[in-house]
Design a protein that fits this description.
12 helices; eight-stranded mixed beta sheet; single chain; 16 strands; 39% helix; three-stranded antiparallel beta sheet; alpha+beta
Amino acid sequence: MLDIKIIREQPDLVRAAITAKRTDDVIDEVLSLDGERRAIISRVEILKNKRNTVSEEIARIKRSGGNADDVIVEMKVVSDEITSLDISLREIEEKLNGLLDTIPNIPHADVPHGEDALGNQEVKRWSPGNDELLLQKRLGLDHLQVAEKYGLFDFKRGAKIAAAGFPLYMGRGAALERAFINFMLDEHTTKNGYTEVLPPLFANAESLRGTGNLPKFRDQLYYMPEDDLFAIPTAEVPITNIFRDEVLKGEDLPIKYCGFTACFRREAGSYGKDTRGFLRVHEFNKVELVKFSLPEKSYEEHEALTRNAEEILEKLEIPYRRLLLCNGDTSFSSAKTYDLEVWAPIEGTWLEASSCSNFESFQARRANIRFKRDPKSKPEFVHTLNGSGLATSRLMVAFLENHQQSDGSIKIPEVLHKYLTFTSIY
């Protein structure tokens, strides 16, 4: 949520964000309701001062033995008007907050302009040995063919058990998935300074509102009406909400958490896109990185978080590139986002494996997460950041393709050996 002062003082800047992120322009309605709200608050303050004055007058009259009936009637009229205005104020604030929830975050000044993914800027590219020849399409088995050959995954039986897009990991495929997760958690906790969290897989509406998933992305969520709970689309939701409605100590920032969860997304509106195997699924595993930062340090923390995710790819020896997303491709809640895309040489394409975002105070304002620089200072909103460190579904595709040998076997990088009972798949 944006500070209402920004909307009042810089409506054109907010409108530019609305246009770029393709949301409804509600600025005029917001400013109108805000004007009504401020007028009511001003009127109520005047009336409360008057009521206090009248109350003192009634007490004075009674002390002197006089008749205060007329003054009491006057005070009742004032009190009734205050009650009526309070009701109107609550209604206006409810409407106003509902509209504010639909306004996206303002992109950072560094974010390039563009309508869609075509406007994103590649800022970095990496491959083992910096060998650009690796970044070419080559012949071999795609991940579905590898899965069938070695019995790693079973998408057909996964669909039988649940539905299409819910993978079933088998044998060495399940072991490899577990190795990815354990390796990433160990790297982030022992080397990068994150504290591990194992959060719930379900969240309430207030948690999803806090991260900006509601109301905009409700159609992407799996919802259980009997319990009024949602299956989480990412561990970002429960981990960010750990501190909802709390005031942190400035000296404790940054706070760095990582957590592994399954993630659930309906992918509504994705029909017609590539849905083969792991390229688009409804359930996938992910290690999430979340930071709570001092405002003046958040972009420094953003670079560090992104680098933490990149190091995982480098140790797994998977080519990748870093993209700076343009304003038209930056998410609703984000001020600045880097995407990390892995190269899949058999598919001959780049696949998104991580998004690393700085939300500035946008999520913190919605979730009411604040901090004090010292015990006597005024609370301020923290800056929140998160990134995939990493999502395993498309990582698995790139891993199997990049480590595929000429005989069709899959070589396992040394960093995973301690997590597995095998060093290759053949």
